[in-house]
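Notes from the 1:1 (GR / supervisor)

We went over the backlog. Supervisor wanted to see one worked example end to end before approving the batch request, so GR pasted a single chain during the call. The sequence is below; no edits were made to it. Supervisor asked that the structure be written out right there so they could see what the output format looks like.
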Amino acid sequence: MVDEDKKSGTRFSRVFKKTSPNGKITTYLGKRDFIDRGDYVDMIDGMVLIDEEYVKENKKVTAHLLAAFRYGREDLDVLGLTFRKDLISETFQVFPQTEKAIARPLTRLQERLKRKLGPNAYPFWFEVAPKSASSVTLQPAPGDTGKPCGVDYELKTFVACTESGNSEKSKKSAITNTVRLAIRKLTYAPFEARPQPMVDVSKYFMMSSGLLHMEVSLDKEMYYHGESIAVNVHIQNNSNKTVKKLKICIIQVADICLFTTASYSCEVARIESNEGFPVGPGATLSKVFSVCPLLSNNKDKRGLALDGQLKHEDTNLASSTILDAKTSKESLGIVVQYRVKVRAVLGPLNGELFAELPFTLTHSKPPETPERTERAFSISDATNGSDPQDIDLIQLHEELELRDDDDLIFEDFARMRLHGNDSEDQPSPSANLPPSLL
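Structure output shown during the call:
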């Protein structure tokens, strides 16, 4: 994640760091947002700094990547039955190193960290398959607590427990020897020359010789988060009825893919227009309407799909799921799609004429890797004096470009806060599925 010191003009890159409660192992990551670019996913690479005592005792240190779909409230987990489905589960032995790990070349980030941290720093790598499940969180109702529903990714680094059984001592040892990092897998849909969405609909009325015709089109098929959608509407009224007004809304459809597929729709943007109305018999209307789906206008809607919300961090509406013919929906957990719905209102007796158009909502293209420039390198978090309003974790930043020196500044890692939120210990919100699913 690249930032710039406004005073000195020096650019630097954030590297995230978190230490186990007993201080024996520390995990380093270059970023927490990993992008699915269609043909590959950003590699999850980092380093683990192991205490000298653990190295001498040859204690086994393992990294574990888990993508899980939680589809029920945490307080309903009883008798060992959890409302959770593991979608991706991979392990990597960090220490002692395997022959394969020793032979594998380090990434540029790992090389610099190795040089700075010393011989007790050991690398790990995870490669996630493209078009796999992406991070999605279902927005909670106000006041909900506990583990959120949705698909989340966790990177866990831990030391193998030498205590046998389920004693309190072994449980405490496992907790103090573990580092947990919440990360996100986001989707970027590469630009493709897709046809412009368009639909024609007509309505026939009894006692009327003509039809009410409506043509709806979008200016393009793919939109980026925060971008306005231009909806072009043309109405040709050849009937003897009158169109009184027009309603346009953006619908988010989340398919919950478990044993069966259940779909939940949520309206994320809406406009109503009386301008140019009524459209009487024989009249026409052509107009372009602009509508923009934003999370800021939907903060209180329970069950709304978000782009993998992390504790104390802002996010946005979930990106459209890029479906592949070879990928089963059950392996994705939640499939998100968007569509525009246009309704021409005629009145209580004559009903409505409506049309729907699907479109893709995604992240903008990640910046290309810039040319090498001299920049400082820091490992930091919101515990430093930076303005939290300058932090935007949902942006797809360019990959790390490191200098040839080892001028690293280490600062403890804690979760970034929402704008204006100063509490670091506030519990994370939970999101629950509609009761009909539980």
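Supervisor's comment: Residues 368-393, 395-406, 415-438 have pLDDT under 50 and may be disordered.
Batch request approved.
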